[in-house]
Amino acid sequence: MRLINFFVISIIGLFQIVISASNGYTKEVLTVNVTDNKNKLYTVEGSTCNIEMQYFDASANSEYFKGNTAKGSSTVIKRFKDGRIESRARYILKGTDSSNNSCTIFIEDNMIGYDDNNRPITKPTIITSNNKLSWLQTADLQGIVEDKGNGSKIIHIMWNESNKSKIPYPTVQVPDQSRNYNKELFTFDISVGGDGFESVPGADQALGMFIGFSCSSNTKTFKGKGLDNFVDTRMQFKNQAQTLSARYIIEGTDDDGRKCKVYIENNGIDVNGINTEPFIVTDNPKWAWIERAPLHGDSTMTNGFQIHLYTVNDPSLWENPQINDPIPETPINNQCSSKITAQGYSCCSSSNCSIIYTDEDGTWGVENGQWCGCGNEPVHTCSSNFTSQGYSCCSKCSKVYYVDNDGNWGIENGEWCGMPSNC
């Protein structure tokens, strides 16, 4: 397992990924001064995740560009109950380049970790209409977020000049279509227009776009209205499908009259129609199961522009919802040889098991007419695939955070560990 490449935001919060901010990123190409709009902070406290949607205004100033943000700029922070944190800012800057020519810059900024000063580090995707700055689209860039307090931040977008290779564009993630999504959950009425429409045609057939919209729901299941005007963010790169990502929050009442909020992040592609794989968070306990359910979305124009969200028709999803998502630790009642468990056998459940048979694999017992491993190996023993890389075995069976060819990985005291073989 090569953790140097595992800069996945899903483990931020369990322990911080420390990224050196000075590792080649020495040239500041954009300095973005951000001011949060305190009247436009929207939150949803869900079963698995808490959402913060923060609108902001910003100005940028550097030797390359001067300008201000267009309407619709926002950051969404997802604070998962298991400790993960995701943060993604989207904004468009409008201004002039160093030659005073008109310039528009689209930026999607994803947090990837922290530096050794505990400042968030981001990986920006940039699309610009300015030929002079088109090199930014494939430059090796990294952002450093400096929190100035009271809703003010400075984003330093740094360039690794020493890396002459062009950074590839993001790859389109195609929504899942392998299941039968035939249970409709929500229908939302969408009105496109108003503030928030901006288009940034970039070099190499790239495109970044904001499409402003308002939204509501008027079904038996859910009646509500969007808390603000929102933005559908579009991106497209050469020889790839156009992606969409609409983030919005609707507040209203369910069919029992319960007040609730629903955060929707509708991610997908627009190729001969919208095809999405939504992410949903809600503070309605009755709908908590939706946060874990497989989801799919599409659109129709029969009764105006409507977004439809579906799941699979599996009653076990909603008839027995687990709101708190407990992850029990599995006690290890006995110790047995990993050579036995590697063959698919379990350790005997009783620590006082009787040894029936002994061979080169270890000592064997019998429970319920089945062979089981009976003693002779320390509880913390795990595969040499872990220990040969310098990692310890986990001290007990617990949550599996990552699986690869080496086996199941856990985390103890902020460090990766190999899950014991008899878990």
Instruction: Tell the overall outline.
Output: globular
State the end-to-end CA separation. Answer: 20 Å
| Strand content range | over 45%
The chain-level structural class is mainly beta
CATH topology of the largest domain: Porin
Organism: Piromyces finnis
Pfam family, one: CBM_10
Signal peptide: 1-21
Keywords: Hydrolase, Repeat, Signal
Provide structural commentary.
There is one protein chain. The protein has helices at residues 315-319, 338-341, 384-387, and strands at 27-45, 49-61, 65-69, 74-80, 85-97, 102-114, 120-128, 141-149, 152-159, 183-192, 198-201, 207-218, 222-226, 230-236, 243-254, 259-270, 274-276, 279-282, 295-300, 306-311, 357-359, 362-367, 370-373, 392-393, 402-404, 407-412, 415-418. The protein is mainly beta and 423 residues long. The chain has three domains: 7-159, Porin (Beta Barrel); 183-319, Porin, CATH 2.40.160.20; 338-418, Alpha-Beta Complex (Endoglucanase, Chain: A). Strands 10, 11, 12, 13, 14, 15, 16, 17, 18, 19 and 20 form an eleven-stranded antiparallel sheet that branches. Strands 1, 2, 3, 4, 5, 6, 7, 8 and 9 form a nine-stranded antiparallel sheet that branches. The chain is globular, with a radius of gyration of 26 Å. Residues 1-16 and 322-333 have low confidence and may be disordered. Residues 335-375, 381-420 form the CBM10 domain. GO terms for molecular function: hydrolase activity. This is CBM10 domain-containing protein. Keywords: Hydrolase, Repeat, Signal.
